Structure formats: structure tokens, C-alpha cells
Amino acid sequence: xxxxxxxxxxxxxxxxxxxxxxxxxxxxxxxxxxxxxxxxxxxxxxxxxxxxxxxxxxxxxxxxxxxxxxxxxxxxxxxxxxxxxxxxxxxxxxxxxxxxxxxxxxxxxxxxxxxxxxxxxxxxxxxxxxxxxxxxxxxxxxxxxxxxxxxxxxxxxxxxxxxxxxxxxxxxxxxxxxxxxxxxxxxxxxxxxxxxxxxxxxxxxxxxxxxxxxxxxxxxxxxxxxxxxxxxxx
Length: 234
Description:
CATH architecture: 4-Layer Sandwich
Structural class: alpha+beta
Number of helices: 6
CATH superfamily: Endonuclease/exonuclease/phosphatase
Largest sheet: 6 strands, mixed
CATH class: Alpha Beta
Strand order of the largest sheet: 4-5-6-7-11-8
Order of helices and strands: EEEHEEEHHEHHEEEEEEH
Radius of gyration: 17 Å
């Protein structure tokens, strides 16, 4: 069983789902969405809708204009070493994520954000330019293949890969052994709202106070009405 709930810290609302408090370890799983006052109001305007799927997935729905936004925060399992590990970790994770996404109203903008423990290659850009942009930075791994397939199936865009930045502003995590930096944290958005994502980049000095070895991923979002018109026509 996992722990989940909502709490207020100063002017922020924290909506969380994590490993059971009776079974905490240093590497315990957990995800959360932190809302400022304006976002909290948007959340309450839709009836404070949220769902703790498990210790790796939590969903929050916000009332925004001109379209509502469903935010899904995730923490994917590490890249599997063998098929047995994949069948007990990665496969169930993506099954749960698919079930969660299927519950989201089709009219919503969807943002799926978090640590996917996946590496995406620019090679995927050559085969599917609508999913992966030209600025992927890694060699694809098994989790990357799962992420790519999930996005292709659900008409999602891996928005990080469409913005060119210096490597220090693209890669969010350093392997402790090889000391190699990788892009593991992603922001996925449904394709019809791709133009609303104006930038995605890593900020290396912003996450040091919260006890994580990943750097902060910032998404700059601005609604464009043409996205709304396309949705209505569809």
C-alpha cells in the first residue's frame, strides 16, 4: 500500500503519492504535484480533482482558459536489466500510465512530466518527426523504446527534444559511475497543443535544496488559440 494525500505548505498545495510510510527506504518511490496559489485556485475550480494511481503516478486536473489541463507526474522504473525485471516493473508502469491517460477528457491539454529513466535518440526523429524532435541527446535504451512507443500510440510529443540548448541545459542527471550526463526527465504533451510549449530546459542550480540528484526541468507554456480551434474542428 502507498501513502497519498494533499497538504498545504505556506502558500503552496502539495498533492502526493508515495511509498508506504511503514516501508521507507532511501530509494523509496514517490511523486507529487506542487501548486502555487493561482494553480490551487484552478485546481479547486474543477472540484479539486486528483488521483493517486500508485507510488509512481499521480494526476491533477486544473481549470484553465481556454482549455483545461491534466497534469500527470511520474517516476518510471529504472531501465530493466532483463525480461523478468521488465515484466515486473516497466510493463506494469506503462500499463498504469495508459489507464490513467485513458481517463483524461479528450478535450484536455495533457502534460505528463517526470523522471522516465529513458534515453531517447535523434534516430527516432528520423523515423517519427512528430514525436521526437531534432535535439535528442542520447543513445536509446529499452525504457526509451517504451516511451517512444507510448507517445506514438497516444499522439504525444516529447517536447524537450524540440528545443535546442547547451548540453548543460538539456541533460538532467549524471550517471554516478561513468560521470556521463543524460536526458532522463521529460515533458510530454498531446500533439494538438505542441505549439503551446514555448520552451523546455534544465536549470542546474534550482534543485539542490530538495535532496535530488536530478536537476530541475522548467517548461514555459502559453496557450495558443489556434490549438483550441484545431481541437474544435476535430
